[in-house]
Hints:
Elements: E1 2-8, E2 12-19, E3 22-30, H1 35-50, E4 59-63, E5 75-76, H2 79-90, E6 96-100, E7 105-110, E8 116-122, H3 130-139, H4 144-152, H5 165-177, H6 182-204, E9 210-213, H7 220-230, H8 244-259
Parallel strand pairs: 1-4, 4-5, 6-9
Antiparallel strand pairs: 1-2, 2-3, 6-7, 7-8
Amino acid sequence: MITAGIDVGSKNIKAVVLRDGRIAGEAVGSGGFEQLARATELLKQAVRAAGCATADLTHITATGAGRTAVAFAHSTVTGVTAGARAANHLFPGARTVVEVGAEESRAVKTDGAGRVLDSAVNEKCAAGSGSFTESMARALGMTLEEFAVRSTQSTARIPMNAQCTVFAESEVVNLIHSGVDPKDIARAVHDAIASRVAAMVRRVKLEGEVVLLGGMARNPGFVKCLKENLEVETLLIPDRPELADALGAALVAADRAGAAPGGRP
Length: 265
C-alpha cells in the first residue's frame, strides 16, 4: 500500500510518501501564499522520489494549520494526532511527545500506542516557537546555526522576562547595550522558550521518555535548555524531526485506507 501525508505549516510544507510503512519519498519546501499549488508540487516531488505515480497513492491525508487548503487530500487530521502517531511509529511505547515548530509548540500525552489522551498547544504566542529564535538571531546578527551553537557555550543563566516577540527583541537590544555576552543572550532566548514548553508538558504530566519533534529539535541550544527545564537526561529525537507530522499523516492515511472497502476512500 502506498499513501501520502502532507503537512501544511505556516512557513514550510512537507510531503511524505509511505510504502508499506516505510518512507519511500519526501519533499520539503516553502509554503508561500499559494498553498494548494505548492502542496501539489511538493507531493509530485515526493512521489517522484518514491519512484511511483500520484495515481498509485491509495490515500492522501493533510495536516497542519493549512490542511484544509489541500483540496485533493482524501482526509485531514490535526497536528496533535499526526505528531502522536509519528512518535509512536518512531519510538514505540512513547507517552510524552513535545513538538516545537516555526509558529506553534505543543505537548501531548499518549497511551503509548499513538492515541492522544491529553494535549496543550501554544499557537498564539510566537515567543514559544521557532520563529522566536529566528527573530532573536537576527537581532544579534547571527545565523540560526551560529545562534544555536553559541548558546551551548554559555555558562551563565540570564532570565528573560518579556512574554512576546516584540518586547523580547527590545529586551535583547538592552542586553546587548549592557555588554552581555551574545552567547549568554542566545541561551536566555532558548531558556525562555524551553521554560514555556516545559510548562505545557507539566500540564499534560510528563510520563516515561520524552520524544521531541519539529524543526527546533535540530537546534542544540534549545535541546540543551529543554533537557534542563524538564530535568531529563535524554530526549528521543528522530533523524528528520521536521517531517514528523507529514509522516504521521501518511500513517493515518494508511490506517484509513486499510479500514475503507477495497482499500480506497
